[in-house]
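Our consortium's second objective concerns turning raw sequence data into structural hypotheses that experimental partners can test. To show how far this objective has progressed, the report includes one record in full. It was chosen at random from the queue rather than selected for favorable results. The single chain below, 142 residues long, was entered without modification.
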Amino acid sequence: VVINPKTNIVESEWSTLPASGPHGLAIDSSAGHLFIAGHNGKLIEINLKTGKVISQVMIAPGTDQISFDLTSQIIYCASQGYISAVKETSTGMQAIGNTPTPQHAHTLAVDSFRHEVWISYADKEHSYLQKFARTHETSGAK
């Protein structure tokens, strides 16, 4: 739903399909794009002016949170047991791959300065914080 913050009036409604059960949202304000992760394993990129889907890729299903690293143009998606990494390019998104994580790690944050991804998770006795770092540059940068 697009709401005008000055009037609090709903101006438009956009579908998130093919990303069903949307959970994670991230914005690339410089490009005017919105990324939406569906619980069904689809990540879509929407034009913020038109509401049209620009591109879509497959990610690990069950995504809860996503975060966008503006400097590397990578979207990280935390799901049940994986972090999916997706590169935003001038021609659409490109899936980089899935990195295994502990099964219940679905909360993440990105440090764009150091290009690190942090996840948090817990078991019955302890809470954990784990860092992931990129190991190589990806092609297709904007």
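The partners drew two points from this record. Residues 82 and 96 are 13 Å apart (CA to CA). The two ends are 28 Å apart (CA to CA). Both points have been shared with the crystallography group to help prioritize constructs.
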